[in-house]
């Protein structure tokens, strides 16, 4: 579809969604409801953490798992205390579509808070099964994480895929995931859902391949969000991309899909404005401050009481 037609067709949604529109990232808030703990695939970089000890700001982390029956009260509190929340999303901490609580929660929101835009993120394994149900529940935006479209590459990112009551390892699992993702994305797009593609950039594995994802999905994705690897779990010894690499890959992919560059890599229980964690970065940029990467943070000599 022509880029301008695609943009204007979805403008009523994307104009008010902070994760589909960088310009309003600092003005419109979102709330993630951590109702979906289980996952049906095993990404080698994903470490889910729950509880008070889990204080990191990254995907897969949540203070607690919220039960659908608590959602109404929690949302009422959020809307009262935080102004300008327009979007309610389900981003795990596991996979949204693999937890029945997701659908129960979406029903509650649709009935009690019809004005909020409903959004979710998924690995896409079950998207071709549930896209219609999502549209019927008035979900408007779906983020699908696609890290490779070649099974030989994806097999090094995803350890196994649980599908049709069986665990599929290696290339076999990767093939099932890729086929379902692409099929689900096309069907969800035809159903009128606005699609964002998340792609984790893992320099040692998919850096030269990410542009192929953009080429393959250019007609269906509204925007692509390429996020740097946070080295964890079985990828804890791998390096994240440099800023220069991230910039280069985003520029390459921008030829095919518009790029989103303001992702805060939020927790599964984030609430409020995404910019809150971005203030220092903006200050740094505005002041054109020099990078102090040569500073030895372990140097103690120059400070004395
Ligand atoms: C925790 S997942 C939840 C939604 C769904 N399961 C998925 O994978 O799309 C949310 C996003 O965080 C990303 N993510 C998880 N762990 C990460 C890591 N260590 N580094 C970078 N991105 C990560 C996922 O790839 C996904 O795009
Ligand atoms: S699909 Fe999402 S929740 Fe599941 S392992 Fe991968 S990143 Fe983690
Ligand atoms: S993780 Fe990125 S896309 Fe999702 S709510 Fe946060 S900023 Fe938006």
Automatic annotation (TrEMBL):
Domain of life: Archaea
Pathways involved: Cofactor biosynthesis; Fe-Mo cofactor biosynthesis
InterPro entries xref list: Aldolase_TIM, Elp3/MiaA/NifB-like_rSAM, rSAM, rSAM_sf
Requisite cofactors: [4Fe-4S] cluster
Signal peptide (residue range): none
Alphabetized PROSITE patterns for the sequence: RADICAL_SAM
Keywords: 4Fe-4S, Iron, Iron-sulfur, Lyase, Metal-binding, Nitrogen fixation, S-adenosyl-L-methionine
Function: Involved in the biosynthesis of the iron-molybdenum cofactor (FeMo-co or M-cluster) found in the dinitrogenase enzyme of the nitrogenase complex in nitrogen-fixing microorganisms. NifB catalyzes the crucial step of radical SAM-dependent carbide insertion that occurs concomitant with the insertion of a 9th sulfur and the rearrangement/coupling of two [4Fe-4S] clusters into a [8Fe-9S-C] cluster, the precursor to the M-cluster.
Name by which UniProt lists this protein: FeMo cofactor biosynthesis protein NifB
Gene behind this protein: nifB
């Amino acid at each position: 579809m022509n880029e301008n037609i695609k943009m204007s067709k979805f403008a009523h949604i994307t104009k008010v969604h902070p994760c589909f529109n960088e310009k309003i990232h600092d003005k419109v808030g979102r709330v993630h409801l951590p109702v979906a703990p289980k996952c049906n695939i095993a990404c080698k970089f994903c470490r889910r953490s729950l509880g008070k000890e889990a204080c990191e700001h990254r995907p897969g982390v949540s203070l607690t798992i919220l039960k659908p029956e608590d959602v109404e009260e929690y949302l009422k509190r959020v809307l009262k205390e935080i102004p300008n929340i327009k979007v309610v999303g389900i981003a795990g901490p596991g996979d949204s579509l693999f937890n029945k609580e997701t659908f129960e929660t979406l029903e509650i929101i649709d009935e009690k808070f019809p004005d909020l835009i409903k959004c979710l993120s998924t690995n896409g394994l079950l998207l071709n099964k549930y896209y219609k149900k999502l549209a019927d529940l008035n979900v408007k935006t779906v983020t699908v994480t696609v890290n490779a479209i070649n099974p030989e590459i994806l097999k090094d990112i995803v350890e196994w895929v649980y599908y049709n009551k069986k665990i599929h390892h290696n290339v076999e699992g990767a093939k099932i995931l890729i086929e379902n993702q692409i099929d689900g994305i096309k069907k969800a797009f035809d159903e009128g859902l606005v699609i964002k593609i998340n792609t984790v950039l893992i320099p040692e594995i998919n850096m030269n391949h990410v542009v192929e994802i953009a080429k393959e999905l250019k007609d269906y994705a509204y925007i692509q969000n390429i996020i740097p690897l946070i080295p964890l779990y079985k990828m804890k010894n791998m390096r994240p991309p440099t800023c220069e690499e991230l910039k280069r890959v985003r520029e390459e992919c921008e030829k095919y899909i518009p790029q989103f560059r303001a992702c805060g890599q939020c927790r599964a229980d984030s609430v409020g404005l995404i910019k809150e964690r971005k203030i220092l970065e903006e200050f740094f940029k505005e002041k054109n401050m020099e990078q102090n990467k040569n500073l030895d943070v372990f140097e103690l000599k120059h400070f004395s009481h």
